[in-house]
Amino acid sequence: MKMVKKILLGLVVLATAFAFTGCLKDDTEGAITGSGKKYSVKYTNDGTDAYRAYKATALKHAGALVKVTFKTTDVASSKMGIIFDLKDAASGVKDAKDFYVIGIGMEGGGNYYVSKFTDITDIQAKNFGASTSAKDKEPKEVEYVEYTSAGNLKLPAAAEDKSISLYVDYKLLINGTISYALYDITDEVAKTYKEGVFVTTEQPTPIKAGIIPDAFEAVTDATKLPQNKIAFYAQIAPGKTLEGSWNVAGTYLEAEDAE
Known about the structure:
Layout: H1 2-21, E1 32-35, E2 38-44, E3 51-70, E4 79-88, E5 97-105, E6 111-120, E7 140-145, E8 164-172, E9 178-183, H2 187-190, E10 193-194, E11 197-198, E12 208-212, E13 228-236, E14 241-254
Antiparallel strand pairs: 1-2, 2-14, 3-8, 3-13, 3-14, 4-5, 4-13, 5-6, 6-7, 8-9, 9-12, 10-11
């Protein structure tokens, strides 16, 4: 009887996980941990292929400011990313997800990319199984900022403990676009972030910024903006250890049915 109860409990846990993340393969190795607004990764990849970790949160917002910290610098092509506007695929493909990613790495002195992914079912596949030339209802990537191993980002200076941190901000705007920015700011400045803006006389200047066009149908009322889940993503290169953290420092709007 005890064995039956354990099996049933295990099935309930698995069912809950799949209900929460759909058919996306979650972080089977438990590389990403955390809850609420604080998450971390610490994982050594002893394999010959990149390991990809993904963790959805219960946070549903139209924007957020997230502090991303690399606690190690010898990470080769490893990445730490923020997934946002995570939702069921608009195409109706069974168990597939649509989302945006802002990914950050250290190759070439620092790099980042911004992409939209649609009809994704396998988070472990290289590039989530997507291509820029995919046909309708196939896993597809739209590149807004292309990743380059040569480097396209000047990372902030390392702290005394040798960690490197930067802040990533994204916001859905009523005209149907999404703004994003990367900042090299202090935690004190980050604390002034309220409902999508920095409440300070001297506004911080982003080190990178841009607009994602035609992201959704425009609205006239900000409270009608889409508010979907945030997730965190890490890609750990073969033979490397990635240690870091994500800290949600502020948010913009909150869905009434957020968990």
